[in-house]
């Protein structure tokens, strides 16, 4: 469906666009030429030429606004500024907390109150603010971006309001010092920025209205988000591709690189200009030795980190989901929390900040350090634990926080890892804009550090045996651990690249790659990625990946999963059939076949189109017309007695009226973008504003009985949140199509005007019984599909298409459903739902005849070819009644199976 | 077409595969269980259990052979070994040359002879060897891989022979010291290796026969090729994606990473084990300072390198193409060279090696150094030119070569760049396996070094003003230049990542990224990439990219480029129509429509299938059957006189025979993979062995007159090279389908056996006139499509689909052509050819009605909706003759346009 919609829209758009451009171009050039002439006339000096030149430059610049690179530069610039300003604010927030905490060191209770109140207030504000302004801003946003880039329209997720809510909410949330990340939200913010920017740019150039271009730009924006968050352009592009795309168009590659590089550059340049740094450097620069970064014999330890991180990552995703599901299931808690929406964030923040209170339990887990500070200390290239004892090492700067007079540094690290692990999993469930990448990254670094310190304690002089001593660098282990755990949670390999760019060193490339790949292998076989997990929790329309060892998927075919009982309408059906189908079936689109016998698929029609057809047939305007016609006929009948020759002209004239109406409808459509989006994706939240176009003549307007019936039975569109659009009555000013029909009725061509009386004259004086009778009669008429938008080439598959291929096609083209045909005949339909179920392996579906995955192998190999032959024969029989020399008798097929 | 083929084949394959696996699994488990029981019975000791365990492990291992990771590990291992062994051999070859040159330093002439003869011999051997063994091994192979991954089958490019030719040829070519690269060929070698390996593995597990899986593995293999060539796994994956894919499946990402990392790891470990290196390090390790790698104010210089590299890259591609085209055009030269194929390589090698002769002109361009050595010196972190004079700097090691007593180092660098530039462009046209990446990389490094040295001379104390002096590092400029020029020639951004991995330092990330992006921007707007240029030169079936600023492409629609005069066959056509269509039309596939009036598209049929149908109808077996039947009828006629009641049974029985034959044919098909590949891609070189299945009963077997006609007129398949398959006569043992038909005729069901006489009895005693008459009669019969393979769902587009979308779909699905339909009606066809022409902007095509790109905007907006309505109406009129209450009169449409 979406594929059809897309092509149609694009075509129409292109047409309009070109027409508009041509027109405006002509107009502009004319006006400009005249302006130039005017200038030349009035000021025949040398100044005129300059002005003409300026005008030309201006014109040239405006024409260039549509170029991709201008948009990308703007996007990069804006995002770099946003990122930098946010970082600045967050740093101030964190400093303020430290300052408060430090200033009150006389009284522990006051210190505790200051330490705890500050984050609680910030988080509560953040939660409340986003809740009020735009609830869509909650969470990381990567799952939503993944869904949007798959082709589903989630409009509310790309508004300016959401942008504001996300930026301010995120700043507050991160300023609180909770274990939250900025990476995921930044992907969303960049996409929001791109969407808002392209809406702004569309004021200048027309190309910004193009949907497919905007999707391409969104993909680039995701890369910018990661790129300017970590100042990691390459890693950003790769991470965004891995996280948001299923199939990536390589031609979009440069866009991402260009924008992300520009953005990262500006982001770092801002830091230099602000005298934060002397030069452009990596965010978390490391200083490992270059000559011998690690020993070949250390690789097993790195592999262990990778495998352990894999398990840890899966556990994190599981824990996160468990917490969300627990909160949902406990109805008592849920009810209470729903009432006091801000209580949950406040409670969680209170718990976490209490535990990290430095003079309290926080002393055992470096609670004093912010996320960035702990990362810097963890990536330090000095060894903390020498000779297995943590005593003699000189902790300087922030590293001091890891030192505890009574407790070993190993114990501190273990406590840090364990505590931060569940804290992060819990904190990311708070309804504020937040990501989980950074907390996970820090935990991974701590785990790596733990392993590294253990290795350093175990081999104090390094493993290398001949000659020079190369001590083990625990900081390298921290780098490996960070990349591995982050990779395991997000199911990406590109965390390795991000790590290189963050640290500015690529010397540990092999250990990092090995650990990341191992972590991915383990994590992917245990749990979905964090983002996929959230997609499932939020019930976004997704298509699960086929996974690593998916070769059994080659063996499932479309015929095993397709719905065979397809609802269709025939080309020669009457309105009653339409009515019945609409009553019984709640599908968004219906197949249009040639006839019930041939079942040749001609196209697909949207449900709303059929409702429109039906309401036009049974609607009040038409009934009034009928009454009017009746009146005219009555009048005529009386006049016929005096002049019998005029009998013929009347029906023809009324025919013309009818045709006038219908073509006004159909020819007006292509020029109206509102109407040209007939095939909205299934999950689009049907808001109260857009609903009326679907049922143009609301139930209260036309007092049709059958229609009322129908609209009451219309399905509740599955909104993502609790949408209250069902209550809103149809605003009369929005029922445009019906209005236009009426207008053309009100103003008939002059030839008819004299025939039909004034429109106002006709009174709707029919009784309910009469109406019912009239409607019954109308329902028996044949449907006229002329003024109905039909998707003329819905996507088709064959029975034998494998699940693997189907998945590929659905992902590639962002399909919602596809018809299964066999030599033109419609035999089934596969929608996203069936496909998802088949991939997930569940086979007990209500109303869907799902055969067990390997059912097709039970059938003998000949059956389907037989089917095909039979079907072809049916076609043949149907369309031809020629006596063939050798006829296909039913007994033959019995014989064949011998 | 390919899409249809693909889905069908996969389905059929999956079915068979599963059936086979199930069967063999059952069989195996039964035999194993019995074996285990046997073991238990005979040796009731503790040993038995061990054995059972072993057997189980073995079974488990065998079942695991199909897993992806095993294949990838094997591939990585093999490629790492190949790469390492090749590098080893190349190093020995180069050393040998140096040793010879060094040993003969008493006599310059002898030295010259040694210096020149050695590469000439090696290159000539390489050229001759590849020419004889596998001419497909010539060149880089990346263009071919791009074509193959697009879905075109170029079988000869993935054989073991080609593998051997490529490996040995490349080793010799690189051992000669010519400016040639190993990267491109390595992509090809890795793919070859994957193809050969999967053919080998298919002996164990069935999944290796799956085509779509093999394509996925080929994509991974490309990454492995780059990865193990440069020990750059990440860059390898990205480069291979950029160079070979149009749309990349993110789910294949990990495969590439996994295999490339493993391969790079083994490649480097081999070096450590061989004591070449102490530890795993980067190939061309740099030692730039970490604290202040470059100054922000140096960025303009880096940008200049980028832009200049862009122009240089475009020039290189242009020069390369120019040389090839010049050699082709000069017919006299061409003729001479074609005769003496090895002369051209020898001459070019002679010229280049003469110019690099160190005591001669080579002294001004560091001719003594090999490619790797010059790269190492160029990336050196010391400054050569201090205070603008090249005197006082201490050249150590290989850097000595850059020093010339009389000539400035700047002049040496300029000469090096200019000479190497045209030498590389020339050398890559030699018909040996060779790439251009590495030479270009070195030239870029030299250019960067030149700029860097100039900067160092200009700002001797660095640009930074406050306090510490940070001198400029020319080595950093070399890194930037190398990445930029390589990126410009190949149109990739990932050369940046390759550079980081090659040098082991990421400190110059920003300058490198900026320069690479600028170089790409310039180069892409001037010339196609080197690989695309070669694709065009070699005339491979490609689809050009839409390019950067492709927004005007949104405005062209399918209806502007489609061929409206589609050749079709109708469901009820007779054999004569088939014959005529086959005679006049040379398309690979033909559309099957319901009837000429309705034009409803039912599917597409391959030309070969139609030929088969026709030959079955007119073939000798059927004629013999006819004669036999005649004889039987004659016999019957005689017997009828005595027993009239048996008249009825005879025709029915013969019907059954006919049906038996046809279903035997169609039911046997799904289980025969040979026959299940009916829709071969258009460009597949039809080899002599496979041809017979397409025309199973060759012209010499059936003496049909019309058929002979037809087969003589059959189009010469466009082979890529001069394929001599036209001469090979049809081997009789290969005409299987026809044979099977005969077999089923020979063994009719018992009920008929007594009716039909012995097959051998019938004599082909018809005269040519009789045959012609008989054929005429046969041609008037209606075609029975029952035993014909029809692609039941060919890809369909609508008229309004934009060129942009069409391009995307064709690239995504690897289509060859697509039908344009409107509500089921076939109205046009778009093939790769039309699409390519539309993208390239040429509109003068013979036989193709191409409207100018923006033609559709000249039509008014209403026209197409009118068309649609009219078409629907036609359908309606055609299928229904009901009198509608309001008829669509032609006058109405006139009125509408008012």
UniProtKB/TrEMBL annotation, chains A, B:
Enumerate the residue ranges of region (Disordered).
638-705, 854-898
The membrane-topology field of this record reads:
Multi-pass membrane protein
Q: Where is the composition biased (Polar residues)?
A: 640-653, 660-670
Which Gene Ontology molecular-function terms are recorded?
Answer: voltage-gated chloride channel activity
Q: Which UniProt keywords apply?
A: CBS domain, Chloride, Chloride channel, Ion channel, Ion transport, Membrane, Repeat, Transmembrane, Transmembrane helix, Transport
Q: Which InterPro entries match?
A: CBS_dom_sf, Cl-channel_core, Cl_channel_volt-gated, ClC
- Domain of life per record: Eukaryota
> Keyword Transmembrane on this protein?
yes
Keyword Transit peptide among record annotations: no
- Give the UniProt subcellular location, in the record's own words: Membrane
Q: Which SUPFAM superfamilies match?
A: CBS-domain pair, Clc chloride channel
Question: For bias kind Basic and acidic residues, which ranges apply?
Answer: 870-898
Gene Ontology cellular component list: chloride channel complex; plasma membrane
Q: Which residues cross the membrane?
A: 69-94, 115-137, 186-205, 217-241, 253-273, 299-321, 342-361, 409-430, 437-459
Please state what the protein is called: 4Fe-4S ferredoxin-type domain-containing protein
> Which organism was this protein described from?
Monopterus albus
């Amino acid at each position: 469906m979406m594929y059809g919609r897309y092509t149609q829209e694009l075509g129409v758009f292109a047409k309009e666009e070109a027409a508009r451009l041509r027109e405006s171009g002509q107009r502009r050039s004319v006006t400009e030429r005249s302006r130039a002439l005017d200038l030349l006339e009035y000021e025949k000096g040398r100044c005129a030429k300059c002005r003409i030149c300026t005008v030309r430059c201006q014109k040239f610049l405006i024409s260039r606004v549509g170029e991709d690179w201008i948009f990308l530069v703007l996007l990069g610039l804006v995002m770099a500024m946003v990122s930098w300003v946010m970082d600045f604010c967050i740093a101030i927030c964190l400093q303020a907390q430290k300052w408060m905490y430090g200033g009150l060191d006389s009284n522990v209770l006051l210190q505790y109150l200051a330490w705890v109140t500050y984050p609680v207030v910030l988080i509560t504000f953040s939660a409340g603010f986003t809740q009020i302004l735009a609830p869509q801003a909650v969470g990381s946003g990567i799952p939503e971006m993944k869904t949007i880039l798959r082709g589903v329209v989630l409009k509310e997720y790309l508004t300016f309001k959401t942008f504001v809510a996300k930026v301010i909410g995120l700043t507050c949330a991160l300023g609180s010092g909770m274990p939250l990340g900025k990476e995921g939200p930044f992907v969303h913010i960049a996409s929001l920025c791109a969407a808002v920017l392209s809406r702004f740019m569309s004021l200048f150039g027309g190309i910004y209205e193009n949907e497919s271009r905007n999707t391409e730009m969104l993909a680039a924006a995701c890369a910018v988000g990661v790129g300017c968050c970590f100042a990691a352009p390459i890693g950003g592009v790769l991470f965004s591709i891995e996280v948001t795309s299923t199939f990536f168009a390589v031609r979009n590659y440069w866009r991402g690189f260009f924008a992300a590089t520009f953005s990262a550059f500006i982001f770092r340049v801002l830091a230099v200009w602000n005298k934060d740094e002397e030069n452009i450097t990596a965010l978390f620069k490391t200083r490992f030795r270059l000559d011998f970064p690690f020993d070949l014999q250390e690789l097993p330890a790195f592999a262990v980190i990778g495998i352990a991180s894999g398990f840890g990552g899966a556990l994190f995703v599981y824990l996160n989901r468990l917490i969300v599901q627990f909160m949902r299931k406990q109805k008592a808690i849920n009810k209470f929390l729903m009432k006091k929406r801000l209580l949950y964030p406040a409670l969680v923040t209170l718990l976490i900040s209490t535990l990290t209170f430095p003079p309290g339990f926080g002393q055992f887990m470096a609670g004093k350090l912010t996320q960035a500070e702990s990362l810097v200390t963890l990536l330090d290239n000095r060894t903390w634990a020498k000779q297995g004892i943590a005593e003699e090492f000189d902790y300087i700067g922030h590293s001091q926080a890891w030192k505890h007079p009574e407790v070993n540094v190993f114990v501190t690290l273990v406590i840090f890892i364990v505590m931060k692990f569940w804290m992060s999993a819990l904190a990311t469930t708070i309804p504020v804009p937040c990501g989980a990448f950074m907390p996970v990254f820090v935990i991974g670094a701590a785990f790596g550090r733990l392993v590294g310190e253990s290795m350093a304690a175990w081999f104090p002089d390094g493993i290398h045996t001949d000659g020079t001593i190369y001590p083990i660098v625990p900081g390298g282990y921290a780098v490996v651990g960070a990349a591995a755990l982050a990779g395991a949670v997000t199911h990406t390999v590109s965390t390795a690249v991000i790590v290189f760019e963050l640290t500015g060193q690529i010397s540990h490339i092999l250990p990092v790659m090995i650990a990341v790949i191992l972590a991915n292998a383990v994590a992917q076989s245990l749990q979905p990625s964090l983002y996929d997990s959230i997609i499932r929790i939020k019930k976004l329309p997704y298509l699960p990946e086929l996974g690593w060892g998916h070769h059994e998927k080659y063996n499932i075919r479309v015929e095993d999963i397709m719905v065979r009982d397809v609802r269709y309408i025939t080309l020669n059906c009457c309105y009653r059939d339409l009515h019945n189908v609409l009553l019984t079936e709640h599908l968004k689109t219906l197949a249009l076949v040639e006839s019930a016998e041939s079942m040749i698929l001609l196209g697909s029609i949207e449900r709303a189109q059929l409702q429109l057809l039906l309401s036009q047939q049974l609607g009040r305007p038409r009934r009034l017309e009928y009454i009017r016609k009746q009146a005219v006929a009555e009048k005529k009948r009386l006049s016929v007695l005096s002049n019998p020759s005029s009998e013929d002209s009347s029906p023809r004239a009324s025919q013309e009226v009818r045709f006038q109406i219908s073509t006004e409808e159909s020819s007006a459509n292509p020029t109206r973008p509102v109407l040209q989006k007939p095939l909205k994706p299934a999950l689009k939240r049907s808001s109260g504003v857009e609903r009326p176009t679907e049922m143009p003549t609301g139930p209260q307007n036309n007092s049709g009985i059958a229609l009322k019936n129908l609209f009451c039975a219309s399905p509740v569109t599955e909104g993502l949140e609790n949408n209250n659009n069902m209550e809103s009555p149809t605003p009369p000013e929005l029922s445009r199509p019906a209005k236009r029909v009426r207008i053309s009725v009100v103003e008939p061509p002059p030839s008819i005007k004299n025939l039909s009386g004034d429109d106002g004259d006709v009174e709707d004086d029919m009784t309910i019984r009469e109406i019912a009778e009239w409607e019954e009669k109308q329902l028996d008429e044949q449907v006229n599909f002329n003024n109905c938008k039909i998707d003329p080439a819905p996507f088709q598959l064959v029975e034998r298409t494998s699940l693997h291929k189907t998945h590929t096609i659905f992902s590639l083209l962002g399909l919602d459903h596809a018809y299964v045909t066999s030599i033109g005949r419609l035999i089934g339909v596969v929608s996203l739902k069936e496909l998802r179920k088949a991939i997930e392996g569940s086979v007990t579906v209500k109303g869907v005849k799902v055969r067990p995955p390997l059912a097709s192998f039970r059938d003998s190999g000949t059956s389907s070819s037989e089917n095909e032959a039979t079907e072809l024969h049916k076609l043949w029989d149907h369309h031809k009644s020629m006596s063939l020399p050798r006829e296909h008798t039913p007994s033959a097929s019995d014989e064949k199976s011998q």
